[in-house]
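Thread: assembly with ligand

MN 10:42: here's the input set. Chains plus the small molecule as SMILES. Want everything predicted jointly, not piecewise.
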Amino acid sequence: MRLLILGGTVFLGRHVVDAALARGHEVTIFTRGRHGTAPHGVEHVIGDRADVTPLQGRAWDAAIDTSGYDPAQVDASSALDIGHYVFVSSCNAYPDWPDKPVDEDSPTWEDGEGYGPDKAAAERFVLARGGAVVRAGLIVGPHDNIFRLPWWVRRVREGGAVPAPGRPDRPLQIIDARDLASWMLDLAELRIAGAFNGTAPIGQTTMEELLRAADPDADLRWIPEDKLEEAGVEPWMEFPLWLPERFEGTWHIGTEKAQAAGLRTRPVGETVADIATWLENGGEAELDEWRSEHRPGKMSPEREAALSRLLC
Ligand SMILES: NC(=O)c1ccc[n+]([C@@H]2O[C@H](COP(=O)([O-])OP(=O)(O)OC[C@H]3O[C@@H](n4cnc5c(N)ncnc54)[C@H](OP(=O)(O)O)[C@@H]3O)[C@@H](O)[C@H]2O)c1
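BT 11:07: finished. Tokens for the full assembly:
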């Protein structure tokens, strides 16, 4: 298959490229050339999504779009000569999420601006052209430039008393970028259309299982949510993967439709082990300023100690 990847050099896209090459596809990537490079055997067309002229006059059997945020740009790229278009969206396309549980029948943003409304507007162009839309949950794995799960893996493996948020048995659902990549290739190859939530089934793992995968003997100090809130802990940014439980939908994303369409997820222990290896091999050096505003900062020992005192 001749496959166009819009993106492909940082995190999710990079795994799509690797999986596509492993399956023997002929791969073209389209990026500005600012982040990362194309592996051997991949055609790299340099350009900005604001102007897809360099892609005109050519044809691909399928495209996987990992870098679409602007609806007009997704309109332009999905109008190219492409057999089947797979667009990476987000659960933020649902106005109800993360406040309430969602599935693919939940309404998506109909107006407004910003990440979620823009993804929803971009989705409509893709769906109208018979493509597939994948509303990803929390994407994890090696090369994660937002660094949410790596933040935890690094911290737990540093040792000592590790403050941990809320309930140890709180269920979570995450998606390894490699599983998402592989399944999106299936959607492209089989020309499956429609909208899907792209994450693991509800209840896939728990916060404790995830943290213990980084070190089974970790000294985890679970701080109840009300104490975290009293202390003004910033959800998601100070403690990645933690939103207060009143955001009922956070880890209640229905995935039956995606599972029926073939999405399979590896055990979280495998993902955590691979992130640990990536970190040991200096993976953090890949991070640059791009998107650093979304990245959780390292927690200071003083802040950790202050949080641990909340348990006394
Ligand atoms: N991380 C999560 O947990 C999460 C959750 C839900 C959904 N998502 C979605 O998953 C996708 C994440 O993808 P990723 O960033 O990991 O993909 P990626 O394809 O690995 O990286 C982004 C690529 O886009 C290229 N790019 C950025 N701006 C561009 C532009 N204006 N024109 C052309 N190329 C451009 C970058 O290269 P250059 O900079 O060199 O151009 C880079 O190759 C996004 O669509 C995001 O909304 C993520």
